[in-house]
Write a structure and sequence with these properties.
Helix 2 runs antiparallel to helix 3. The two termini are 23 Å apart. The protein is globular and about 35 Å long. The chain has a single domain, classed as Heat Shock Protein 90. The protein has a 6-stranded antiparallel beta sheet with strand order 1-2-4-5-7-6. It has a two-stranded antiparallel ribbon with strand order 3-8. The protein is α+β, with helices and mostly antiparallel strands. It is built from 4 helices and 8 strands, in the order ββαβαββαβββα. Pfam families: HATPase_c_2. GO terms for molecular function: ATP binding. This is ATP-binding protein. It comes from Amycolatopsis minnesotensis.
Amino acid sequence: MTTPSSRLSSSGVASFEVPATVTGASDARRFTSAALAAWGCHGHSVDDVQLAVYELVANALLHTDSAPELTLRLTGSRLRIEVSDESAEPPSKRDGGRDGGWGLRLVESLAVSWGTERDGAGKRVWCELELGRTDESARAVAG
């Protein structure tokens, strides 16, 4: 899935301008699936990545007034997921309940590490996950 608002490289970097629509998080998940397949990533770790992407993008869409940008950075067997938006307000973990609040806790449980950083006037929320990859695809992306 590539569109004028997405970029996918064989060097292990992909970005997607997420539409600020009700399907934005699902669109980001589909883009992520296509990027991981192109890079030779497989297995249960792909499901974890898709879930983390969905949660981070859904949070940005729900709690900000901007269309976020998703960036995937693959280095060896580690994938960094970054979601940037125009809100300077940092995300906060809250107690999960019937109305939500599980997203960041879920990301935290899936990720090796996660955090936030300033990005211009906004912020970037990121997490890193370990992936299962074939030896051949790892060599192709590593160059």
